[in-house]
């Protein structure tokens, strides 16, 4: 056994080798016999009795003979049987471990697997006798406890580009993060993200104007050319370099987003089994250096279309007068100093995201994406009273009400599953009685203030305007959106009569204040803004929020800073200021909170 230990390359064997060698040197026997004895131990002994460790034995090794087929077969059957026994033993151990672990407390490894991090090293949680977690050590790059929302997914992920107004990229990124659990990259007016979620579900985004399945994203520094011809040729080669597969994958995403009416049935697919290449046109835009050189979008689109025709085999069409009415495949291309972007827009057949979600109004006013963002920044909660003192076409109230309807439908589904549980029946019965009492009190208060017809799941939406035509148009928009009886529109004049509500009755105020460009002048704005701010201060409760959209931010900020109580404390507290660009007009969204109540305003 000592000789075998000397042959092993372990730490213990290395320590015992000199002892064994000294023992062998004391033995007085023939050198040949000693070498025969010690050969298996990896030690060579000289004739004079001195011994040295040998790296390899000097005797030639015999070649192993090949076994017959029967022997090999028996060996393989033994190996299979042994592997089965090992697997069964592993399963038994897992069952014992599950039985020993307390229910409802998953291990660290299971949490890592759920999060999709199987390669992360994790230590099991050490538990006390009562089942409480004592220590948790999970080494992971991301938080493993946060699981992604469950959505139907594709086999491969796709890159997307979400376009929005300037200043809205942070709001769009926040919505994508909340809805889908994705960490996007936000630039000025553009948001990039990768996901394997089915593209039709991405149409639920409320702050996005256009969604594009991105194929090409090339840095602008690596595009060379001095003339329009060389620049257009370099753009065409970059778009064709990506190959055929990414373009085909983007086309599949576009077709998955198409409506059911446009999708071919099984019979049509069998009859039209021959492949028909789609018609396409290139919608190219050039800005920055390309515009200075003199490269136009039509020239760049023509060169890119020829390159993609040779690569994909699709049929190119000349650019139409209106891309919204074009029935073929539209290829979006935008070249600027920063980068080159190319892809296929989704939801084109439904008229875009706004038309698909039914957000196009009969009398359009503010952009629906901007209106949704203002309502989202207000953080409307159940039971709130929301007022728009300068409603105009009612876009702000319509978008806020639609958003609340969607949220209430999702919460009702969760409530039904919770209520069906027999353990929770008694608790839900008590809660429902308390809710009924509070609802009666709220409704009686609303009747006194003339706002009972605008209630929506405990939320009241009231708007008004001084122009009778605007009130009529807003009512038609509300009726067209299916919100009749849920959003109330009134005729009032803030300057002459003020808001017809009690003091401290309103929770949230959202308003698109007149800019003084189209429907009013600068003098009217200077008179209107102080009245709106003073009425908002009177009507809002302490801690209530007001969200204003205005281009005259300097005037509004000066009025907010001037308003102080008799004790010298500021009445308003500015929470956030967000700069936007609406077309050619620079505007700001400002969120203020009522900090204190001043009795002199009553």
List the helices and strands and how they pair.
Layout: H1 2-7, H2 11-26, H3 31-38, E1 43-45, E2 51-53, H4 69-100, H5 108-114, E3 126-127, E4 133-135, E5 153-163, H6 169-180, E6 185-187, E7 190-197, E8 210-219, H7 228-241, H8 244-256, H9 266-271, E9 279-286, H10 289-293, H11 297-312, E10 315-316, E11 329-335, E12 339-345, H12 352-356, H13 368-378, E13 385-388, H14 395-419, H15 425-449, E14 455-456, E15 459-465, H16 468-480, E16 487-491, E17 506-512, H17 522-539, E18 540-550, H18 553-562, E19 572-582, E20 585-594
Parallel strand pairs: 9-10, 9-11, 13-15, 13-17, 15-16, 17-18
Antiparallel strand pairs: 1-2, 3-4, 5-7, 5-8, 6-7, 8-12, 11-12, 14-15, 18-20, 19-20
Helix pairs in contact: 7-11, 13-14, 17-18
3D architecture notes:
A hairpin with a 2-residue loop joins strand 14 (455-456) and strand 15 (459-465). The chain is globular and about 100 Å long. The longest helix has 32 residues, at 69-100. Helix 7 (228-241) runs parallel beside helix 11 (297-312), helix 13 (368-378) crosses helix 14 (395-419) and helix 17 (522-539) packs across helix 18 (553-562). It is built from 18 helices and 20 strands. The chain folds into three domains: 2-53, no CATH class; 156-264 and 276-355, VC0802-like (2-Layer Sandwich), CATH 3.30.2130.30; 361-420 and 432-601, Vaccinia Virus protein VP39 (Rossmann fold). It is of the alpha/beta class and 602 residues long. The relative contact order is 0.06. Residues 28-33, 40-60, 62-72, 100-148, 260-273, 412-423 and 443-455 have low confidence and may be disordered. The protein has an eight-stranded mixed β-sheet with strand order 6-7-5-8-12-11-9-10. Strands 13, 14, 15, 16, 17, 18, 19 and 20 form an eight-stranded mixed β-sheet that branches. The protein starts with a helix and ends in an 8-residue tail after the last strand. This is Ribosomal RNA large subunit methyltransferase K/L-like methyltransferase domain-containing protein. Residues 110-121, 413-423 have a biased composition (Basic and acidic residues). One of its GO terms (biological process) is tRNA methylation. Residues 47-130, 407-451 are annotated as: Disordered. Residues 60-69, 424-442 have a biased composition (Basic residues).
